[in-house]
Write a structure and sequence with these properties.
10 helices, two-stranded antiparallel ribbon, 288 residues
Length: 288
């Protein structure tokens, strides 16, 4: 796509950019299925499609799409009754400082270093999810100061019981907010595994609540990119809008599929996708 002249409209878009529409749909569907927003797939694809763009522009485009995808996915998950709003509200609030800082810091990272770092992060998470034994419940009771207990019944009548340390969830969310905004992935790719393994959320509740948190996390980073002028029509905003137009219906499809897929399958699909993308991006960073 890079290097093709504009179509004369002055928007910097061309007919081939319409291919971004099905890409957005696929990213939205898979991202919502695993509760990750799709940025972990979209960023490496954009890095490969637009090698001339800097890391800041790529992450800005991705965060814009993640924001639209998370809004659509949150609406779908809200209908299913699987969002833990009380926990998600605290997590979203705690991501604010990190999300703003990450959107600023990424402007100082060279493109090749960004590619290599992104590959390492994705690969590490993917391997962790593959080697870790699946755990559908809480191994030991969570007790002590800061422990909260949740009982959530979804729209289908399924009831989930779980407990976790709120202060731990807030602290982890703060760090995830920075890393996710820095990488342009929205944070769900990190937040869902953390919620499922460290905080002991049921995977379906973790995926749904993560979408709710993502909606705010991505909006915070996107606002920074708008204010700094990183997102502008001629080079990035038009393409991001096309991707978002595909991601919105894709998110609805992903949320519908999540209602029919087992939690273990979701985690394995997530791990496999992470490792494949990490390998491809790592090879690119190494010049192969």
């Amino acid at each position: 796509m890079a290097g093709i002249p504009p179509d004369g409209t002055g928007s910097g878009l061309n007919a081939q950019d319409l291919l971004l529409l099905p890409l957005g749909f696929a990213v939205g569907a898979f991202g919502t299925l695993v509760g990750a927003g799709g940025g972990f797939v979209l960023v490496p694809v954009l890095l490969l499609l637009y090698p001339e763009k800097d890391a800041q522009t790529i992450t800005a485009m991705s965060l814009f799409v993640v924001m639209a995808n998370a809004m659509s996915g949150s609406v779908a998950y809200a209908r299913q009754g699987r969002i833990d709003y009380r926990s998600g509200g605290w997590f979203a609030l705690s991501t604010l400082p990190g999300a703003i800082a990450g959107a600023i810091v990424v402007g100082y990272i060279p493109r090749r270093a960004f590619d290599a770092g992104f590959a390492c992060v994705l690969g590490a998470i993917g391997v962790f999810l593959l080697v870790r034994r699946s755990n559908q419940g809480i191994v030991a009771p969570v007790t002590g100061w800061g422990t909260v207990r949740r009982r959530l019944t979804d729209a289908s009548g399924n009831t989930f019981f779980y407990s976790f340390k709120m202060q731990r969830g807030i602290g982890l969310s703060a760090g995830i907010g920075f890393l996710s905004s820095l990488l342009g992935i929205g944070g769900g790719i990190i937040h869902v595994p953390v919620m499922a393994t460290v905080l002991h959320f049921p995977i379906h509740i973790a995926a749904a609540t993560s979408q709710f948190v993502l909606m705010f996390m991505a909006a915070e980073g996107t606002a920074v990119h708008f204010s700094t002028g990183t997102l502008h029509w001629d080079s990035s905003l038009g393409k991001a809008l096309i991707l978002a137009a595909g991601a919105i219906p894709g998110a609805q499809s992903g949320a519908w599929l999540s209602h029919k897929v087992q939690g273990g399958i979701i985690l394995r699909a997530l791990a496999g996708a992470l490792i494949l993308v990490a390998v491809r991006l790592g090879l690119k960073a190494a010049g192969i």
